[in-house]
């Protein structure tokens, strides 16, 4: 075998390859980039450590990155989200065989333990020879949720401190495992992460949560390299978050439960982009949607869009379906779950599983947990009634369905690819000294690149774009080729 | 083993039992009927030959029928639609074990051949001792699509003619198999079906297609027993057809293809109840929906609902998704499929698989068929482009998803149960001689029973019904308890 | 002046003529009938007494009837609904002048008193010479709400009884006026209405309310001539009621109040066709819609369409807008109005003004009524808060807007025209003796004529109808030219 | 009479006062500000020159400004948009009489000429004594579209140049009038505008168009005082533009034409906030909506929302209704109008009347213009067909309806009021020297003030806001009291 990897079963590669071929058709943005950059190979020399759900769509992203010249190592950013056949196909590669894989090293399989998860996260930095010579290691991170970036920053921090602290009593279980992972690392090589960080030119980050962490680091002047906030490209946040969830939320609920959504009362916690997509999908299926919000602007939007805006406590007995979309925590408490209707469905499409108080639920005295099928559990309260929790409170659209569909991921991933190209070339850590060099701060992509991503997807939908005349463009004070809007424009 | 049956794997019964328990919660209509009739046992003495998709929901129906006193034998009405764990659970019964099944004889498994299918159809009439003494056989049919009813009528016809005719050259393959099945039957017992028919008090029929056959028989004075058209209860046709498809169509497309529906052009052939539900679901997912129709009234409804109404030929190059909902035939031709966009998705939620010309597609010179996964096939035209056909042109909501969800089936099946009670008691063949006896004709349920079915489902949705005062009812000229509308009212 | 009439101001005729010309463009059904029957003149010899809102659209209907050969006299069926310029234009006629009107005698103006209203109703039967020779009088009625038909039936009844009874204490004010009108008539000619009834071949009735009256008469064997129920043509009830209200309800609310509908809580009482259109319109404007219903089937439809279904009392404090759509009475009581939010808007698009208890409201102690503008009144409760009542509780879409738009009226009125043609030719009172002669009962139009009306409207919308092949039609058991559906089909 | 003003008819003041009282109920944001600042009087000393549509809602704004201590002079920013009764009521004031007006000087009436319009614009700067002592003049501008700001800047420019240039041949008619207005001003007082500008502390601007002008000035370092861009407050741009148009567009079309929107093909040019509201409103009325766009991101949004995206030329024959929403120019050409369907409706809700080429239309050889009613014209092409143009191509929601409803204006105007308070206190020209002083640049309001505006409107809708716990807020890294989102968040 030509390289190390760890996946579920490499023999699944053919099934994966079929799916990749179909997904490519639904990812016109990535395919257009492959064509545009076939010759110039802007990622030649890039060694990308990728941490993002190892799905079929990600496979098309990975193969786009390599088509542009990059070398890649990959892990999933979620213990449940890997599609094993996609992992297998990426490892084998389009030209390889299971015996002679010619693809990309992947460290991901469906249903990892947390220990395994953090091991895979460290493996994407374990480039051959890098421990000895950091310049042979990763020089780019492509991150989703910020775990890869976190590992590097914590590693550097503890290496500087000369050791890994003990976990505190109230630290979450997962943080103990991170500490353990790093403790083992420092014992092997006490300067590993310092070397890794040195060599990194930058990170491109996919999600709100990861982006928030980056802005925190930047505010604390602790960011070790430049970052591009891909999440806030319009063609990411307003597409993936909204239109992706619109598709994958009902998909997940339907696959998990086969329960009719029509006629039911669905409570959507949060009315950000994800919540907007969730509410639209549920209404589109004939549910009556109630929204909870803490932000008065979003709350007013929900009201103006015709939804009831209520406090969760006031509608806890009414809902048949409860969906969290917030990125916050403790959105639904165990006590609230105990007051829901019999067989109410509870699921999360926000970010972490702490949006729903799963720990509190499990700690409820006398509660019984029955597995209906994988990722679908009935929690029976002592009083006899029960609720159905999807994907253990983790992202149900990934756990119970297959995540965002290819087309929206094409938009997100075209942003990722363009961001990798930008940062690989123009990070100050690339030695680039132009005025537009990226410092160790957090950036969004220039609007004209955002518009480019949109443009790449219109034709596939049969949408015909109009063109400004020079005269009209002058009247508006914009260029015929864009960008067309001021930066503060909200779409 | 206490009785004969043929299912895939009886050991699946526990999984099925779990699902049945959850489905019961979503079928408030059936559960209310169990409660209402627990004591009176109105189906005591009924022996029901059932032919209807052997799903989890049907399991709840079957166990409702037995809870009301009936004996039951069951087959599926579609070769793909059986959920094997549901069949196993019904065979075993709530109190039985695989070794000592105490449920209902079922003859159904996923993926039957057509020969097997027609064998199972004959088995629901093969009651122990019935061949010798027809009065021990089935006295009721519960039918979906009319195959069980067809078998009896053809059997009687051929037995009267003294033999089964040869198939004609242009007879469909399936008809040859029916003839073969009956030829074998006549060779075993030349008066079997005559005896079966004699003993039958009536049939309750689920679908448009089956109902159309019944009306044809009635017009030809060839109907051998009374029939209740369950399909045209408002709480069936306007609920199951419309709201069921609204759920199960996107479910099927999503599970089959994972392709984003949003932004795509979806062509819905037909704007009857099924088409209305399909169009609403696809629009609810952000697709642009184009409707084709032959009925000017339905076409005008589609236009007034904001859909483009076009001829299929005029939009064949535009569509990304094509769905037939008509109950007709040759709605999409092979030639039209060859002109579709690359990777266009083609599926049927109407009735038979001849809505899409699958035979013509298979006969296209140089075409190649690739199985992406079960029930999802890519057909590659010689020119290189391909289309994705779901469920081989059969009902995709059954083949690629799990059919209508429990809640809508509760409404349909509450109608079925009430219709079985009506007909078992009041068929002229039951010896009933009241003025309201059912003759050998086709009937719909009285409106007040239709309203009863609706009433049984409101509470579960949290819907609060208002009540007329006596004074208001008098003003409207109706009874406080209903029925509230004239028979011609269209809802 | 060549004939008697009574309208507001004949000089408005030019403005009316402009509007009629524009309305003709929006009434493709009527214009197509003018073309189709230009030569055959199927209404030659018909003398039609018309009682229907005297709007611009009705003007196009009247001129269609005359274009087909009829003579016509017209009154409005509502004291508020006349558009004075339309009345003027119809009186003058396309070729006439105010000095030499060549149109149709009209007795209608905006804001009639009830006494005037019933006088106009009697005038449409006052054909020159008819009092002496009833055969010179009206031979057809075109009715909306049944007032013209009521007048004839009551007249005949009292003439047979030899006198008009006194009003009872609890008779509504309006009934006293009817009695007074007839008392005067009997004193002039004690056999007038008997003669009128004798000469009438039939009535075509527009609305649910009028149709209900006709069915009551038929059940009592008291119907004096055949009736065609135009209301229940699909292209009437499912178009005019639903799509007309969808347009004219928000139109009326907006013109009356300029209050933002978006974000508000709108309570729609009733979910029949009118209620469905109302709910859709209000949701389409971003309101949160709550439905009240007494029919469990309609209630279930509302729930499945995603609306909250509640009892009015439970949501009386929540609503910003309350709309009655029922055709019933006492839907909103004065006491309930007193509990509404300050400045809640209350209106009716059902039938009579007794849906909202206006009498009770006016009788509330200490209440104050302020006219904001014509047809918009603020009722200030002694406690200081107030509600806004539209059109005094009468039809707000007529009183505050201009009623259904031309296009839906084209559909309704094409049914009216076709029904007049049918009945004029084939009433038993026409001397017609064919098998399909209309007896003194209530009929709906044959489905194929209903389909014809739809067909006449498709092209104007750019909708392209598909056509069945002979083979497909045979498969479905229908004729290529229709009708396509069984009579019980609900659309 | 206590002050000079020019309005249509002061006797209309009572009608206006009624409407203002009702509007106040629908403007909870402004009423809450009156309460909050009743005591502190933050605008005491402010002399505001206001240029904004003189409607009933603006009357509530004006009286809010005076309730906070300001003195005000007002003109409309559009020649058609004044509601005369609102102007009258504002002039008279709540306590005044026509003989002794105690309100605010207003210079606005419905249907001004362009000459009159620019005269009114100059009157809002003509404070008593200001010509002699500029410090007695306006110290704040409240602007909509930027005309008041333009007048000041052009005045200063020409005064510095020592004279007003001649109009160029291709200058628009309106520009000639501006030049003429200033020429007259310079002849009266050659330093008037220089004095005015000196004394101004800043401008708060309502619309995209005005804001664009401000950013241009700022880029050229030509902005004479600070500006707050109210347009881009979320609670302005995403509410007024979107939800306001959703209401007032169908309102305008319905009042103008009474044409059924349902079933029609509506072409919406532009899919910004205004276009989104327009498309939603038309779809909500059952129209089939086609969108044209030049920005690929907005185009992709339109496609994902289920609309057809096309070039105008490709659908010019299909549309029944064409609406421009762009803020650009020459969106619909005269030649395109000549190819539309007979009686197609054409209207603009963008900004200026040059979105539709009205000049080109008028110049079409042989064209005939018929006034159907005020603001509704039929343009008959020589070939015989015609189109209906609303409001002469100016804003139809103002010309044919009454503009945005009070509730959305409450949101916009609460932003205006807060911006006036901010700028009056903290402009560098106020002598304020804090770190957060506003320089002569363009600013948007701090997000927490934007959230405040939203908060002020929730209760009136019955929306219940949830509250973060301290723990949840810390987790998100925000303050419990907000702001909740980063500045780049798009809502």
UniProtKB/TrEMBL annotation, chains A, B, C, D:
Pfam families reported in the protein's UniProt record: AdoHcyase (PF05221), AdoHcyase_NAD (PF00670)
InterPro entries, A to Z: Adenosylhomocyst_ase-like_sf, Adenosylhomocysteinase-like, Ado_hCys_hydrolase_NAD-bd, NAD(P)-bd_dom_sf, S-Ado-L-homoCys_hydrolase_CS
Catalytic class of the enzyme: hydrolase
Cofactor binding mode and count: Binds 1 NAD(+) per subunit.
PROSITE patterns hit by this protein: ADOHCYASE_1 (PS00738), ADOHCYASE_2 (PS00739)
Keyword Cell wall biogenesis/degradation: no
Record-listed E.C. numbers: 3.13.2.1
Record key words, sorted: Cytoplasm, Hydrolase, NAD, One-carbon metabolism
Catalytic reaction annotation: S-adenosyl-L-homocysteine + H2O = L-homocysteine + adenosine
Residues the record lists as binding substrate: 55, 144, 206, 236, 240
Cofactor: NAD(+)
Superkingdom, natural source: Bacteria
Compartments reported by the entry: Cytoplasm
Family that this chain belongs to: Belongs to the adenosylhomocysteinase family.
Protein name: Adenosylhomocysteinase
């Amino acid at each position: 075998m030509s390289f190390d990897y760890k996946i579920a079963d490499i023999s699944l590669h053919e099934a994966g390859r079929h799916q990749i071929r179909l997904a490519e058709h639904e990812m016109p943005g990535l395919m257009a980039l492959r064509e545009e950059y076939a010759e110039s190979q802007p990622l030649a020399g890039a060694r990308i450590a990728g941490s993002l759900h190892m799905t079929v769509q990600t496979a098309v992203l990975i193969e786009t990155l390599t088509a542009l010249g990059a070398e890649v190592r990959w892990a999933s950013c979620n213990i449940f989200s890997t599609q094993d056949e996609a992992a297998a196909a990426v490892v084998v590669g389009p030209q390889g065989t299971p015996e002679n894989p010619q693809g990309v090293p992947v460290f991901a399989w469906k249903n990892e333990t947390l220990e395994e998860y953090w091991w895979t996260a460290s493996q994407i930095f374990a480039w051959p020879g890098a421990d000895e010579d950091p310049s042979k290691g990763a020089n780019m991170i492509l991150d989703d949720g910020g775990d890869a970036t976190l590992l590097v920053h914590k590693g550097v921090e503890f290496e500087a401190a000369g050791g890994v602290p003990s976990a505190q009593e109230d630290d979450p279980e997962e943080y103990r495992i991170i500490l353990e992972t790093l403790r083992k690392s420092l014992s092997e090589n006490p300067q590993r992460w310092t070397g890794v960080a040195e060599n990194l030119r930058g990170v491109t980050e996919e999600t709100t949560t990861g982006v928030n962490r980056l802005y925190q680091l930047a505010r604390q002047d602790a960011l070790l390299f430049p970052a591009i906030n891909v999440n806030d490209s319009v063609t990411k946040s307003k597409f993936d978050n909204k239109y992706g969830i619109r598709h994958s939320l009902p998909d997940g609920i339907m696959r998990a439960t086969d329960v009719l959504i029509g006629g039911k009362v669905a409570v959507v916690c949060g009315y950000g982009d994800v919540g907007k997509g969730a509410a639209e999908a549920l209404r589109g299926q004939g549910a009556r949607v109630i929204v909870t919000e803490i932000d008065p602007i979003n709350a007013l939007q929900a009201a103006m869009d015709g939804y009831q805006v209520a406090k969760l406590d006031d509608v806890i007995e009414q809902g048949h379906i409860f969906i969290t979309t917030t990125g916050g925590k403790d959105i639904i408490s165990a006590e609230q779950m105990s007051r829901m209707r019999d067989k109410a469905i509870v699921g999360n499409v926000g970010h972490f599983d702490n949006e729903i108080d799963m720990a509190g639920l499990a700690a409820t005295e006398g509660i019984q947990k029955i597995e209906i099928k994988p990722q679908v559990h009935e929690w029976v309260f002592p009083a006899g009634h029960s609720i159905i929790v999807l994907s253990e409170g983790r992202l149900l659209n990934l756990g119970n369905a297959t995540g965002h569909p290819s087309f929206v991921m094409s938009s997100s991933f075209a942003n990722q690819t363009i961001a990798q190209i930008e940062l690989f070339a123009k990070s100050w850590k690339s030695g680039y000294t132009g005025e537009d060099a990226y410092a160790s701060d957090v950036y969004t992509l220039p609007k004209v690149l955002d518009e480019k991503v949109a443009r790449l997807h219109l034709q596939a939908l049969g949408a015909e774009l109009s063109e400004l005349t020079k005269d009209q463009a002058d009247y508006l004070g914009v260029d015929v080729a864009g960008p067309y809007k001021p930066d503060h424009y909200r779409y």
